[in-house]
Structures are given as structure tokens and as C-alpha cells.
Amino acid sequence: MANLFDALLSVLKQDQRFFSDDGQLLRNAVYEAAMKMDTNLIHLLLSNKETRARFFKEVDGIFVFDKVGFSWVINNREFLPDSYTRFKNKIGLVDEHGEMIATSGKVELVFPYKDCVLEGGQTKEDQKRQEIFYNEILAPDEVDRLLYPKVFTSAKRYSKDNVEDINKFSEKDNLIIKGNNLLVISSLLKRYEGRVKCVYIDPPYNPKSNANTFAYNNTFNRSTWLVFMKTRLEMAKKFLTNDGVLIVAIDKNEQPRLQILIEEIFPEYDVDCITIIHNPRGTIGTNFSYTHEFAIFITPKGKKTICSRELSDNEIEWTPLRNWGGESLRTDAKNCFYPIIVKNEKIIGFGDVSDDLFHPKSQTVKHGEKYYIYPIDSKGIERKWRYSRQSVDSIIDMLKVKKTKSGYDIYFGKNYGTYKTVWTDSKFDASVNGTQMLKELVPNTVFSYPKSLYTVVECVKAVVKEDKEALILDFFGGSGTTGHAVMEINKNDGGHRRFILVEQMDYVKTDTLVRNLNVLKKIAPESTISYFELKKLNQIIVDEIEAADDDTTLFDDIYNKMKKSGFISYKVNPANIEMAADDYYKLSIEGKKKFLMEILDKNLLYVNYCDIDDEEFGISEEDKAFTRSFYGED
Hints:
Elements: H1 2-12, H2 27-35, H3 39-47, H4 49-55, E1 56-59, E2 62-65, H5 67-74, H6 83-90, E3 116-118, E4 133-135, H7 140-146, E5 152-158, E6 163-165, E7 174-178, H8 181-192, E8 196-201, H9 222-239, E9 240-250, H10 255-265, E10 269-277, E11 283-284, E12 289-290, E13 292-300, E14 309-310, E15 319-320, E16 330-331, E17 340-343, E18 346-350, E19 364-367, E20 370-373, E21 384-385, E22 399-403, E23 408-412, E24 416-417, E25 422-423, H11 431-441, H12 453-464, E26 471-474, H13 481-493, E27 498-503, H14 507-523, E28 529-534, H15 538-547, H16 551-565, H17 574-579, H18 581-585, H19 589-599, H20 621-630
Parallel strand pairs: 7-27, 7-28, 8-9, 8-26, 10-25, 26-27
Antiparallel strand pairs: 1-2, 3-4, 5-6, 5-28, 9-13, 10-13, 11-12, 14-24, 15-23, 16-21, 17-18, 17-20, 19-20, 22-23
Helix pairs in contact: 2-5, 8-9, 9-10, 12-13, 13-14
């Protein structure tokens, strides 16, 4: 078959689509072209005598392409580019008939299709982990098991002056949870489905360069990143109340594709993209200096779910009430003739009807240190207020006073308005109100460029301003800005909103939790935070694989532990691994790590709740009690 391989390579080299810039064959691209009956590929194969004889059958003068036979050759281990792929293929996954999936033509496992689930399981900033995909159609049972509710461990409750181990969950607590965010939120659904008013997430931005504004393994390629986001967006949708809103922060690299994906997942929602100037100095690119990022708001169609925005004084259009005609503030209502009282150039309130004892002939009357401004127009005609005296105090902040030669003018305006699609306030500066603020709270933080606190405050407040008991979820917890923002909003209006932060990275203890505890002590001393983690199982093996740096540890220790414990995927026959040991030892250290990750049973990275009483998993009584309490089954 060697001559066939040489001939096939010679043919494929005529199409640049099938080779990388460094000359490596893109086998997956060839396979996909064959499955799509690509005309250029077929033409090339027909043009060569050997490939035409091997991959075509002539029927009544017509050449019929044998794409199954062609895919078998493309996936044959002798045709694969490196020892790792050859070894993987030799012991590869099989279907229910014992045939290798990679050569069956049933599904293209090599490409992260939209019907896949990407776990995304980093825990350290410097990990370059081989990502794990599950096909929802091919392996629905695996996906279901992966997303089963999990057991929780290491539960503690933090208050202003105390920390304690707990075995009972409280709805009153704010939550910070460590663990893979996909698995955590699949567990949270059991308690919080349909209960969250605002989901705010700031996912990894996936830049094309080495720049990284998020302390996370941010090496997802574009298609993989979209699969990573798709599953999490679909799950986020399940948390929302009927009037709940999802907000996704993103930059220019993925914003166009992300918005299309969101519109596909949320057809019954409006999708609006807000531009936020977060870096006034700009990040210099080849041709432009970038100063902005985006916040995509996903709101239910036909519902007013974004609250009115508080405007600064210079944003309000003030209208003088000098002529008192045609203004929304006044009408000819009965018994609504009373003055605005001004003292020391400030409005101090409204008078009663009895205050007309002056029988004014002009708009402004001075009495002692006070000025009484009546609703009398320029022609001396008395007007009336729209609002009754009993409710007029509620509009006092819609008025302001300006001194004139003859007295005072009153101006009517609104302190509330709609949000615009471009936010330019200096408070959104991520350097001042992000980096500097975080370093004051967590001096040794790993974050170099976190969000401005007020970017998150404005986003979340736009949704929950009128709901002082709202629940806010952020499952890309990062440095903990969302928790900080919720406490800031509560401080300003006396609310009791709660937050749930999920973060899988190890800095959740040193940054996320520490920041929010420091904020709690300063501005929310009555609040409490419960911290807990997913209970690891095979994730312990993952950690050991990632830390290993020699053959003895990888094979003699880790592999033998996997084999003995049954942690190897049921789709892999250990006997085949032993037979192919020579191929295994030819792999590099990284290749061996990838291989062990391939054969590890990923459905058991964490302990499922349904296995909580299995003695093999050694769940403590405290962890059992807390987990059952969380799921409402204590």
C-alpha cells in the first residue's frame, strides 16, 4: 500500500487547502472534503491512474467515488502523521459494533461541531490541557452522566469577623463555588432553575495574539471557543426568570460570531450590543488604537426589563418653567395651587394651599429668608400643578433652581433616562477602577487587567435596580468583580440582592474569595459568603498527569492506578494498550500525557450526587449533610 500512499500524497499536494503552512497534511480537511463530495478533490483523484483505480468504480461509463474506502485509507494508521496519532488510532474508541468510530464515517470526532459539549477543565493559569469533547448525538448518555448534579465538599461560611465549617446550606448566603463551571452550573440548576434575575458573564476573550486579559487558559481556537460558549449559554438560559436578562462581556475578536450564536440560542429574546469605552488611552493595533469592549444584553422580547438610568446633571435637558404653559409638570387640577419654597438657593420643599396668604400677583414672593415661587405664568394667570400635594415630594429631584435679578427661575428635568448604546464615562476606565482598585483589595492579585467595577455595576443595576431581592449569577467569576458590584449596589440603595460566583481556577481562594471578603468587611458587614467546591474523583488523576514529568510516574504509577481503580474509559480495552506498549514508549512525555488523558474516564472527574453513599468514594458525613441540604433533601 506504500505506493498508493505516495501517489495519494502527490495528488493532494496539488490542493493547498490540504496542507498547513509548514507542509503538514491536514488529514481532517481531506476527510471532510471527501464526505462533502468536493468536486476539486474528486477531479484530482480521477486525474491520477493509481488513485482512480483504487477509489472509483466504473458503472456504465460513469466513475462512482468510493468515499468510504477513501476515508478508511485517510484514517489508516500508516497514513497518520505522528506516533501519538498512530498509537491512539490503534486502540481508538469503538462503536456498539466494535468498529473504530474514527474510520466508520458516522461522525467526524476530529472537529468540534456544534452538537458537542466542551468541558473546558483548566484549574491553573499555565495549563495547556487537551480539551475534551462529547458529541450530544453520538454519546447522549455520556453527556447526561457528565452533567449529573455533583457532590460538594469543603463548605465554609464567612462573615465579617468569623469563618466556620458548615454542613447546612442557607439561601441567605452569597455563594462562591470552586469547580469546572459547566459541571457546577449543571448542579446549580437543581436549585436555581428559573430563579436568577441577571446572569452576567465575562468569559475568556480568545484573542488571536498572545495577549491575555483574563488569567485563564485562553488558548481556545475559534470553533472550539464557540462550542465552549454554546453549551454554557444554553444552560444560562435555563436559570433566567421570565423577565431575567443575560449579559455577556466580550471584545472585538469574537463579538460578531458570538452575537450570531446568541441570536440562534435565544430566538425569543432581543439582543443588543453596548459599546463601553474601558481603555481611553487605547491599545495600539496595526492600524487602529482600540479603546472599547462590548456588553451584549439578551432581554425577553416585548418586556420592559432594563430599568431607567440615572443621569448626571449635565446629561439632563432642563426646561425653564417661566411661562408654566404646556409643561408635563402642570395641569389645571383642582386644589393644586401651591408654591415651591426656596432658601439659600436650594429648593427645600412645597408649600400648602394655605400658603397663598400672600395673594401673589407675581410668580416670586419673598417672605423672610424664603422665596415662594407660584405657578403663575407671564400674563399673571394662575396655573395648577399636575401632582396632588400628597405626592408632590416625590418629584422634587426633577426640579432645580437658578437665581435671577428678580428672584429665581425653576427648571424642570428628569433624573432618569434610557441607557444609550455607547458608554463613555470615565468611571468605566479599567485601569483606574479595575486594576488599581483590585490591587488595593488584593495586593498580590494574579489579574493584570480586570474589569472596571462600575462597568459591572452599571450592567447589573440596569437589570436589578427595581428588584432589591434579585439573584445574580456569574459563572466566570474571575477576580470577583460581580460580587463586589452587587454589594456596591446594595450599599447605595439598601437592597438585599445576592450573588453566586463560580470559578474553576486555583486563584478562586487567593483572589476571588479574598476580594469579596475584604469588600464585605468594608461595605456589607451584615452579609455572609458560603464557599464550597466540587468533590474531585478522576480530576485528581488529571492533576497528577499534569504534574508528572517522568515515565515512571506516568506509566508505572498513574497508569497502573487508573487500571487498578477502573478509571479507564469503558470504550478502551486495556489489553490493547498492553499489546501496543512499544508504541506508547516511543511517545514524548507530552504525548504520553495526552494519551493517558484520552483513555481516562472523563465522566467521573467529580463525584456524582447519585453516588454520595458509595463507600468507594469516601464522602465524609459533613459533605453528605451539606450536599443533601443544598439539594433540599436533608
